[in-house]
Amino acid sequence: MNWTVDTHDLPLSTPFGIARGTSATSECVVVALTHEGTTGYGAAAPLAYYGETAASVAETVPDLLGAVADVGDPHAGQRIERLLRNEAPAQPAARSAVTVAVADVAARELDVPLYRQWGLDPQQVPPTTYTVGLDPPERMAEKASAAVEAGFAILKVKLGSDDDRARLDAVHAAVPDAELRVDANGAWDADAAVDAAGWLEAAGVTLLEQPVPADDVEGLRQVTEATEMAVCADEACRTATDVPEVADACDAVNVKLGKCGGPRAARRALHAADAYGLSTMLGCMVASSAAIAAAVHLAPLVEYADLDGALLLESDPYAGVPIDSDRFDLGAVETGTGVRPR
Questions:
Q1: Residue 156 catalytic?
Q2: In the prediction, which pLDDT does 118 show?
Q3: Cα angle 179-200-213, degrees, rounded to a multiple of 5
Q4: 256 has catalytic annotation
Q5: 339: confidence class by pLDDT, cuts 50, 70, 90
């Protein structure tokens, strides 16, 4: 086996704001892994919030790829994942980039798309949301209108500011027929979140994601009990082992390959959530399609998809799963994840 590891500093089409700050670029580490003439791609856009950076991922990935080469067989996914967890237990984004590349190679060698190798139904991919980042109210309204005009029927609105009601009201007025979901990224304390849940529900918001800090499970429970909206845990639920802790405190969990360690780890989290009767969402970071495509192949397993990260870039150096309006066309993928350099 041989490989390349590249870091891309990708400009966003417009600065992207959440409660923790605003970004103008996305640092994405891309792995290209070749086995007997077949190349697969994996990538990650790590967040310092989860303890990883592009530099730490780029430094770790070659060691992980060395472990993959020692195994020598991209179809030995279970063994490879176990080795990588032992090698880098605290670096799920790095493991995700490598395990996605391995999965891509394996599916390409079998000449099937990844969803077919996993036995999933390409017709069951839910529509993806389009995320409206924190901005002044009038700018958020403009971005919401543009997204709806582009064919997105469901918007995720970032809140967690000092004037959230004005922002939500502006978006709602601009796109009164769109379904709105809200993500506060843990910005509110429990009392503020319960209060916000009241006016959000009154405004027709259908889902509220991570309203309180990640470590405030009791606060999450209070919000869930106070509203008929679906309440979703994101930062509070990183891996399958976190699901039992939040299971009676929320209605859904957001699973991301980059925070749990790759496709196998994501499936474990999704199945754990199913076992506890929770709904599931597949999410992503703002990143290249090389980091998102594998999650799209898992999307037939979930009720909610938030996989628009590559759509927020000014340009994407990699093509991924084709998308028409808000629907990914998995059936158009011929082999692997469908990722290729542009």
A1: no
A2: 96
A3: 105
A4: yes
A5: very high
pLDDT tens digits, 214-256: 999 999 999 999 999 999 999 999 999 999 999 999 999 999 9
At residue 199, the 3 state secondary structure works out as helix
Q: Which of 298, 311, 224 is nearest to 266 (CA)?
A: 298
Euclidean distance between CA atoms 201 and 152, whole angstroms = 21
Calpha distance 20→49 (Å, rounded): 9
- pLDDT of amino acid 342: 94
pLDDT at residue 121, as a whole number = 98
Identity at 299, one-letter amino acid code? A
* Contact residues for 217 (Cβ-Cβ < 8 A; gap 6+): 236, 245, 246, 249
pLDDT > 70 fraction of the chain, expressed in percent and rounded: 100
- Beta-bridge partner residues of 209: 183, 232
The C-alpha atoms of residue 336 and residue 158 are separated, in whole angstroms, by 33
Both tokens assigned to 175 = 């796109």
Select which of 143, 156, 158, 259 is catalytic.
Answer: 158
Amino acid at 338: G
| pLDDT (mean) for 32-39 | 98
Residues 144 and 23: their CA atoms lie apart, in Å, by 19
CB atoms within 10 A of CB 231: 26
Compute the distance between CA of residue 312 and CA of residue 329 in angstroms, rounded to an integer: 19
141-194 pLDDT per residue, tens = 999 999 999 999 999 999 999 899 999 999 999 999 999 999 999 999 999 999
Say how far apart CA 105 and CA 110 lie, in whole Å.
Answer: 9
Q: What is the DSSP string of 127-150?
A: PBPEEE-S--HHHHHHHHHHHHHT
Integer Rg of the chain from CA: 19
